Amino acid sequence: MRKRFWLIFFLLVLPASALWGQEQADSLSQERRIRAVLAENCANPRVIARERFSREDFFLYYPLPDSAWHASPNVFDTEEGYPLFLPDGADVVYFSARDLSGSRSLFLSEKRADSLWRAPRHPAEALLSTGSEIFPMLSPDGRTLYFASDGLPGMGGFDLFSSTWDEVNGIWGKPENMGIPFNSPSDDFLLTHTEDGQYTLLASNRSCGKDSVYIYVLEYEAFPLRSAVHDEELLEQLEALIPSKNLATSGRVSGNADTRLYMRKMAEVRSLRDSLYRREKDLDALRQRLTLASDAEAASSLSALIRLRENALEPIRDRISAANKEIRRIETLFLRRGAVASAQEGEAPEEGPKEFAFRQQALGAPLNLAVGKPDGNFVFEVADVGALTGDDTLPAGIVYQIYLFTSAQHAREERFGGLSPVYERLNSNLRYSYFVGLFPTYRLALQQLNVVRKLGFPEARIVAYSDGRSIPVNQARQEE
Length: 480
Hints:
Layout: H1 2-38, E1 42-43, E2 47-54, E3 69-70, E4 84-85, E5 92-98, E6 104-110, E7 133-138, E8 144-149, E9 159-166, E10 171-172, E11 176-177, E12 188-193, E13 199-204, E14 212-219, E15 226-227, H2 232-240, H3 257-292, H4 296-337, H5 341-344, E16 381-382, E17 398-407, E18 419-420, E19 422-426, E20 432-439, H6 442-454, E21 461-466, E22 469-471, H7 473-479
Antiparallel strand pairs: 1-15, 2-14, 3-4, 5-6, 7-8, 8-9, 9-10, 9-11, 12-13, 13-14, 16-18, 17-20, 17-21, 19-20, 21-22
């Protein structure tokens, strides 16, 4: 009997254990590959200071408005341990809370004219993952959103990401990993810039336990210069973010204010040109896809996307032009007074911020806000068994669905993971595509997207229709 027990154990338990071990190894391998990619483009910020704090209240030591942090649970978040940043007078709040799938996701709420706060919604589809997103913070100019995620591709634990506001389409863009040394194989989160433009701060549990974090204070750089670091020892030193012992000899550019501005503008132009080059390459690829498109609907969608991407290039070109104009102004100034004028006149070189003092802020009072309820009705359900709808006719007007998958054969209902109603459509290439739900607004579809992804459809995405005809989602949102 005992031999039979151990035989069953080896046959059942060990294969499952081996599979779990393989999944862990695959995850670690992916994180190493991502780290290797990020090592090709490392920043080297000047580290002003670092200090260790308790994980429970470290956020109170950031140089942010007093009483701007509010403890959880609160009206926006029912879970302890994740404070909410809401300064007095703010009419928009970004925060992290549990979504309908159980993950912590980013949410947005705005104050209405009647002082009632709108029902929270996800800021953008690009900012969703099947993991967790925490500690969102806006840049001082409101154009960049910083947050940490353990669901987006990173080096392990939570990585810091940034998303830029797309003025053309009115949405947050695809998040970008902030790279080394802002990120490490440990947990990195809560990045913000000070209003005076001097410092960048971030928290991390690198070099300490899970119950505490270091707050790192870096000299702010709008467009940090980046380079490849292939030596593992140098890479680890960079990730350690050790404060400079002698800031005056740290290798930074000295000189007067015009000299430093000139160097920053040169770096800005290089960075913008790199961004423009990447976007133009993406556009060339889209144009190539358009020439090969055989489906009229696909060609229409690609054409609309190309127009949007082309329009998005103009602001970048305008910023390059403005930066070049400033560079020419400074160069003219140098020529008038001589390149070494400031040294001859005995001006002291401007070394940038040298000291930083941590000071504890007060925790804000408990939130007493009135929050509205979600509006709008939708057709979507998760049951024991998924079901195909008997009528796949779409209603008139704008409507959204969630794309599930495409198959060469009819899919069985067991494959839908309990989702209902599921719509089946035969494509021009004689393959079957499956979609779930009917949502009158993009916001309502976005609320359910993570639910669908966690049911076994990680590639699920939102699609849009107008009077039954497929249209780009951005176009639908504009017409909505």
